[in-house]
Amino acid sequence: MSQIYPEKYRGKINAEARVYQQLNDLRSSHWRFFHSVDIARHSVKKSGEIDFVAISRSALFTLEVKGGKLTRRNGTWLANGKEMDESPITQATDNYNALRRHLKKAKLPMLPGGHCCVWPDTLLETHSMEWHQSSIIDKRGMNDLLRALETAEQHFRDEATRLGKPTPTLSEAAYTALCESILPDIVQPLTAGQGVEADKSELVELNRSQSRILDRIFDNPRIVISGPAGSGKTLVAYEACKRLLRENPHWRGAFACQSIYLAKDIQLKVWEDGISDRLEVLNEETMYPFYTRNARGIDLSKQEPGSALAIKIPGYAVDPSSLKEIDSKRLLDFVVVDEGQDIVNNVALLTFLNACTKRGLAKCRLLWFEDTQQAIAAKLASGNRRKLYVDLLDHDVLKDCFRYRLDPINYRNPAQIAGKAEKLLGITTEHVFDGNIDPQVTSWVTEDPLEALGRAIMQLERQGVREKDIMVISITGKSAGILEKGLRAGGKNLSYESDVFDQSTGRHHPAGHVRWSRLIDVKGREFPAIIMLDLPDFKDPFDKHFMYVALTRANSLVIALGTREQLLAAKLDPSS
């Protein structure tokens, strides 16, 4: 029998699981297989994972599995008719090259090898310069997997001979040493801190896939784009701003959102990209000052404190350029809206944003991103702010917009976190990002969440997670009063993130501090590690949406603090 590590399959029941079972059932001691191999310090591959590494005494090669029916049309690869982000051949090549570099650096024996693509649901009927038939194991090859592996092994040895490279056959002792060297060096448990850093690297690579969404939507001058958490709306929205500026050198535009803190994240990117002279970042506090300064020539920051100004502002359905008192030349040529679900029914924000554009929201170049599952701002608003939200507006500024729904793919949240969030709402998305930490979600049963918060912070610090990578989220706000007084927990000062910043201080994180936030101020944002407290009791149907928003802010790990009843209601395992 062959040997396979780990001895038990852990993962989704999919094509990879079927291949694992067939490899495990091979009646041959010639092979050892390593499943789900993560390479430490890897910076080239889109993903840090190789599906399988196959090692014999004569060859070492990777097996990259792709389920579904694969086809190629005009140079584009499709899986079950849907366009793939990357050629499976290119991905397999990159993964093998990354593994080879790692082995060479570790001074391990270099056997002939390469990459094999395993397509168990596809019958390959065509030939191409892009691949060698012996390195493709299709549906037909899966019927005699042992023979297919032997064919690949011989192909790699023949290629090495043709290129004048050595083709050693290792002694049993050297073979065992190679396998034992690979297992602890490549497949190694990461600390939470190491996992966070590995996740950051992978997410940078995934950005390239998400940005391709722009190519599908950019030809529509007025479009509403909807998609679930993790589908990359904020990233694509910002990339859309940059493309509009590149293609229209004389235009001036805005990235607009409700949240001051999401606007802060974007403003820092705008400064780093050197486009602050042409791209405004507008939020609920800056839209009106922008209008008065640019349309009316009045700088509110230079007015005497307490002075009353009666400045007329057009309604949200009025074209500002039609009013004589408005100088529209300095207003915006386009607007890209993020978190639009919390602006669309807010009369004040619609009015302010409309007044900032040359032709108004009903006519300007507009890209509007939203997720109705995250429409929580009206529910969290209180007092006079609640009155700004109306169920039905007199005029729908989005009525003539083309509507596009993003594919249900989660690029930003690792699989376990995404799965927990989706379970709350009964939705399903494809998970592209597996993450490098296990478990990614842990639940602590506690009657005193603030005491447990200190222990959670200390545990993350022991595991190497940096202070600036931790965000504490109060979902219901129950503990906000205590937190606002400057609570210390786990030896750290808990502080609310400052909304006053400039280009030099925007990314500064004071030593000895961990950030905390109310739920409303983390919408649209991402953090490596989330600690959730003040969980809802789920008596209100909207509570599941609050939990969904909180969970999907995490890129690496979540610690949930609550009573057993709260955790069970949130579909989180109280024993984990």
What does this entry look like structurally?
By secondary structure, the chain is an alpha/beta fold. The protein has three domains: 3-188; 233-405, Rossmann fold (3-Layer(aba) Sandwich); 415-569, Rossmann fold (3-Layer(aba) Sandwich), CATH 3.40.50. Helix content is 32%, strand content 19%. It is built from 17 helices and 24 strands. A seven-stranded mixed β-sheet has the order 18-24-23-19-22-21-20. Strand 1 (3-5), helix 1 and strand 2 (32-38) form a beta-alpha-beta unit. Helix 10 (287-295) packs parallel to helix 11. The longest helix has 20 residues, at 192-211. The protein starts with a strand and ends in a 7-residue tail after the last helix. Residues 40-47 and 184-188 have low confidence and may be disordered.
Topology diagram in text:
Layout: E1 3-5, H1 15-25, E2 32-38, E3 49-55, E4 60-65, E5 70-73, E6 76-79, E7 82-83, H2 88-105, E8 115-118, E9 136-137, H3 139-142, H4 145-162, H5 172-186, H6 192-211, H7 213-217, E10 222-226, H8 233-247, E11 253-256, H9 260-273, E12 279-282, H10 287-295, E13 334-337, H11 347-355, E14 365-370, H12 377-380, E15 402-405, E16 409-410, H13 415-425, E17 430-431, E18 441-445, H14 449-462, E19 470-474, H15 480-483, E20 488-489, E21 492-496, E22 513-518, E23 527-533, H16 543-551, E24 554-562, H17 564-569
Parallel strand pairs: 1-2, 4-8, 8-9, 10-14, 10-15, 11-12, 11-13, 13-14, 16-17, 18-24, 19-22, 19-23, 21-22, 23-24
Antiparallel strand pairs: 2-3, 3-4, 5-6, 6-7, 20-21
Helix pairs in contact: 10-11, 13-16
